[in-house]
Specification:
Helix content: 40-55%
Number of domains: 1
Distance between the termini: 23 Å
CATH class: Alpha Beta
Strand content: 15-25%
Strand order of the largest sheet: 4-3-2-1-5-6
């Protein structure tokens, strides 16, 4: 089984999901199971979630799971419940993040995903911000990194 997560800036400029699908396809070649953790906080997360859904349709014979990982409970989970239940295999709010100040919760959530992942697909072009910090954290942990 392979576990993958993503890091990218909120905005996506001209990047299509085909490159993400290509990387995921390569990772899936030798595996029957894949879990993808996505944060759901911006355009890049949405693009990656869509890429995983594409992969699931292409490989119905493989166990591919798309997990939305949130740092805390959000009202939108209740107001758009049908969307979230139909779009993700699982919605997870890690217990380890309970009690963390909300301003630090997103960074802690990103680290939680990297800690559990084998690889990171990253679209980072700035040398600051949450995506950059997540990329650097994955590098320190010697995770396999695919840069877009």
């Amino acid at each position: 089984m392979v576990v993958c997560t993503f890091a990218g800036h909120r905005e996506v400029f001209g990047l299509g999901q085909s490159r993400v699908v290509e990387i995921l396809e390569r990772l899936l070649e030798a595996e029957q199971e894949m879990t993808c953790y996505v944060g759901g906080k911006g355009e890049f997360d949405a693009l990656c979630a869509s890429a995983v859904r594409t992969l699931k349709h292409r490989h119905p014979d493989k166990a591919i799971s798309l997990v939305l990982v949130l740092p805390y409970m959000e009202h939108r989970l209740n107001t758009d419940k049908e969307y979230f239940e139909s779009s993700f295999d699982e919605i997870l709010i890690p217990i380890e993040l309970a009690g963390i100040h909300y301003k630090k919760a997103i960074t802690a959530c990103n680290r939680w995903m990297v800690d559990r992942a084998d690889c990171l697909i990253a679209m980072v072009w700035r040398d600051h911000g949450g995506a950059y910090q997540t990329l650097k954290y994955a590098e320190r942990l010697c995770k396999q990194i695919f840069r877009l």
